[in-house]
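Regression test case RT-17, inverse folding.

Input:
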């Protein structure tokens, strides 16, 4: 899983059938120092109702068509991150 921040929305007027009705969000990975990682921005399918500015967990998986598509999905909205080191 990747810890990320929602940084925007993606609008697609035409989507594959598997993505119809899905909200697509732009997410940027967060590093160990809790800052955004430049060049680590992805498009993810929102499955939890996340919004811009939310801290989220993103999972990469083969979901739509295992032979053709590799999708990322937002699976949780993070309330708090606590580091014990």
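Golden output:
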């Amino acid at each position: 899983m990747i810890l990320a921040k929602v940084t925007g929305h993606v609008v697609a007027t035409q989507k594959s059938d598997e993505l119809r009705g899905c909200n697509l969000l732009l997410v940027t990975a967060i590093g160990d120092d809790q800052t955004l990682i430049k060049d680590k921005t992805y498009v993810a399918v929102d499955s939890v109702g996340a919004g811009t500015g939310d801290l989220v967990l993103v999972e990469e998986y083969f979901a739509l068509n295992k032979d053709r598509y590799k999708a990322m999905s937002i699976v949780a909205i993070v309330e708090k991150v606590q580091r014990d080191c």
